[in-house]
What we know:
There is one protein chain. The protein is 60% helix and 0% strand. It has 15 helices and no strands. The protein has helices at residues 28-51, 75-90, 98-119, 121-125, 137-151, 157-176, 194-203, 223-241, 246-267, 280-301, 313-319, 321-331, 338-351, 353-356, 358-378. Helix 1 (28-51) runs antiparallel to helix 2, helix 1 (28-51) runs antiparallel to helix 15 (358-378) and helix 3 packs antiparallel against helix 5 (137-151). The termini are close together.
Amino acid sequence: MTTAVETSPGPVATGPRDPHDRAGRRLRSLDLLRGVTVAGMITVNATAGVQSLDKPVFATLLHADWAGFTLADTVFPAFLTMVGVSIAVSARGDAGGVAATRRVLARAVRLILIGLLLGHMFFLADFHKYGVRLPGVLQRIGIVFAICALLYPRMGMRARAIAAGGLLIGYWMLCLLPVPGGGATDLWVPGHNFVSWVDRIVFGEWRYVKGAFGYDPEGLLGTLPAVAQALLGTLAGDVLRRGLPVMRTAKTLLIAGLAGIVTGLAWGVVFPIAKNLWTSSFVLLSTGLTIMLLGLFHYWFDRDDRPARKGDLFGSFGRNAIAAYVLHEVASIILTGDAIQLPFKWLAPVTGTQIAALAPVALFVAIVWYPIAYMDKRGWYLRV
């Protein structure tokens, strides 16, 4: 299977097989962590849809307006981290060849095109009511995947670590540049920075946030720290490829993840943790959390070679992530329907409105999961 965040695992030229070596194998931990992330993504987007109907929801299931960090803010960066992990884990001996390069570029283009199509479904239906937006989630994933998949076989572990650090520090310097034409730079205020100014110049009105201080959360220069995030993911993937005992590998990932969290929080004192700007502190914090979870999942699920159980909640989402992404985008219109809001009306007098608002969200997750689980049981996986 190939998904938006995974290259297909295959044989890796690593010499004699060590009994603990997991290079090139399909890791249950990675599938399940990806599945948890997909479920989180659907939950977060459905919660935003429910809120748009003027229903009160839990704030942690919504993205921070600017500086800050919520549960919702962990989802997209987790995908980018796992892009890097998957690139490393699934890399083949011919990854630097011409044919592999063509496959990487073709896959990236397809991801970008799918992202543009899904992002403009309503625009294509009504040109006058809806606008155009060029950046997007799958667009960023496609670009980051292409860059990191091309760099991985050409750069060693040390070089990729240095490159990631250089990108994060360099991006900080970019954010601090004065805004051309005047106006004070203030990284704690939305749009008052050089990176957002570039989005306004490059994308014009084809960006997510309009206005004099508009910006795009998947903007142009913000791709730089996103690449750094996936490069950090390749380092975690390298740890998984080493063939060390599971306990030792999990411990290494947990320590690395904790280091990322601490460094991100400390950096956040001077460089705000802000998803919409994709700040370097945000990258380290979110990458650290993802790698810590990967370490825990690796310890729990990769200690033996038990086959994956088809049709389960997280595994199904993880093995068919792109299908789940497409389906939840296409089906999102039902969130505004009366039928899916009925559980809210029934529960609100009993549980309160915030808890009741979780009911249509949970129902939407189940609606998306059912066909994905069926596809998983039948062995049907959407390839990109």
